Amino acid sequence: MRLPVIAGNWKMHKTMEEARALTRAIKDGAGGATHCTVVLAPPFTSLAAVCGETKGSSIQLAAQNVHWEPKGAFTGEISIAMLEDAGCSMVIIGHSERRQYFGETDETVNRRVKAVLNSSLKAIVCIGETLAEREAGRVHDLITQQLAGGLAGLTHQSLSHIILAYEPVWAIGTGRTASPEIAQEVHKAIRDWLSRQFGTEAAQEVRILYGGSVKPDNVSVLMRQPDIDGALVGGACLEAESFLRIIHY
Ligand code: PEP
After folding, report:
1. Which of 53, 97, 104, 167 is catalytic?
2. 199: containing domain
3. Ligand 1, atom 6: nearest CA belongs to which residue?
4. What was the pLDDT predicted at 1?
5. Which has the least CB within 10 A, 94, 134, 135, 177?
6. Which one of the listed residues 67, 95, 161, 187 is annotated catalytic?
7. Where on the phi/psi map is residue 108: left (φ > 0), alpha (ψ -120 to 50), or beta?
8. pLDDT digit string (tens) for 36-77?
């Protein structure tokens, strides 16, 4: 019912030429995949180059951030129309690195999410706790707070624009993946929250991705969990070989 999503977040990696080469290799190995939606999220400077290479395949293009205003004096920012123009169908919002290093809050996540609702884009909204929050037993409170803040004002109809990504901060780039049981437990709590807010039917439609040191050798067991609908991959998406093994989990 929920088509899985395997998304690669390239972060601040790859020049345009490197981006073209990586995309070509991924397209050759997975361009015709129908068991999941493959998403590539290169830096802004490579969006058009990656878009050019993905033509004729089902690979989707995502940006790593977007501003909520349609245009104006916002030096360094990128608008939704610009992303649409560059060929994007998705955008990552509220990644923990944006929250940690660039002052992203649930309130600014919510502004970006609301702006996306009036566009052709889908938002991949990231949430997740730090190690200190997990050790303090605050996972559920924190997840609830991020969901309530980031999705404030949304209706069940607008959920069709939303993909969620549960990314425990302690698992990102650390090689320390959440166990399938831990990930499933939080994914289920997220879906239960969505059911309470928007109704069961709408909640059942939302894809919830897991992110945090997903690798070729742990992706299958994660994907077998009933509420895990895909992966948001950082480090292992930068080489075609490992990303293709994840896509063909
Ligand atoms: C990420 O940055 O979204 C991520 C999950 O990174 P990694 O796979 O490297 O942990």
Report:
1. 167
2. 5-247
3. 234
4. 83
5. 135
6. 95
7. alpha
8. 999 999 999 999 999 999 999 999 999 999 999 999 999 999
Protein residue with its CA nearest to atom 4 in ligand 1: 234
Residue 140 structure tokens: 């559920």
CB atoms under 10 Å from CB of 224, counted, come to 11
What is the CATH number for 59?
Answer: 3.20.20.70
Q: What is the pLDDT of residue 151?
A: 98
- Of all protein residues, the one whose alpha carbon is nearest to atom 2 of ligand 1 is 234
In the annotation, is 35 catalytic? Answer: no
Give yes or no for residue 177 CB within 6 A of ligand 1.
no
Phi, psi of 137 (to 5 degrees): 70, 25
| C-beta 172 within 6 A of ligand 1 | yes
Atom of ligand 1 nearest to the CA of 237: 8
Residue type, 89: S
> Catalytic residue at 95?
yes
Q: Residue 200: what residue type?
A: T
* Average pLDDT of the residues in 183-192: 98
Please count the structural domains in the chain: 1
Q: pLDDT tens digits, residue range 97-106?
A: 999 999 999 9
Name beta bridge partners: 233. 8
Residue 41 pairs with which residues in a beta bridge? 9
